[in-house]
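Input record (one chain):
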Amino acid sequence: MPPKPSKARTTPPPFDVQAFLKSGGVAARTVRFAAGAVVFAQGAQANSVFYAQAGGVKLSVLSSGGKEAVVAMLGPGDFFGEGCLAGQPLRMATATAVMQTALLRISQRDMIRMLHDHAVFSNRFIAHMLARNIRIEEDLVDQLFNSSEKRLARTLLLLARYGTEDTTLRELPKLSQETLAEMVGTTRSRVNFFMNKFRKLGLIEYNGGLKVNSSLLSIVLHD
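The corresponding structure, as predicted from the sequence alone:
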């Protein structure tokens, strides 16, 4: 009897974006942001694409009535700000660092040239954007239908890059409960309640930093 196919998520081989850009004559600049710093603001001129090397970035949209909605949470390996490649003159969202963050800033002109001239880079970028769009759709469904407990568990797993490596326990940079509450769409008191619950169950650990166990997935999958 043939073996059953594995359900484990396969991880693509490492891709050094900075080295690849350098080989194509692109001098991408590394820029660093403290937690809470704005990378770009909604309505600002759109003339560059960013690639996250470390840390995390929140994309949010502000309505005319002053209500903010978080539309995506991004981490290492993610591109963002790509709207300029499709002709968007202004940023449609605000990008804010949620922790100490290092980004590569690539000019619109250089990014377009790399996509046109280098098939390997173009293919990886397109694959990334498709995967990211799927994740954002999942985030929307999560916000619409799941409890705050499940949303918090899923957010922690995403921040820990669950499914990208074989390790079962990952440490996150320092992240306040206020930031987590904003990301999840709930109150700080609810986040504090669920974080204590997760710790008592052994799903996360506090020891100077926050470690997330892959068993936290049981909260997301539990009906």
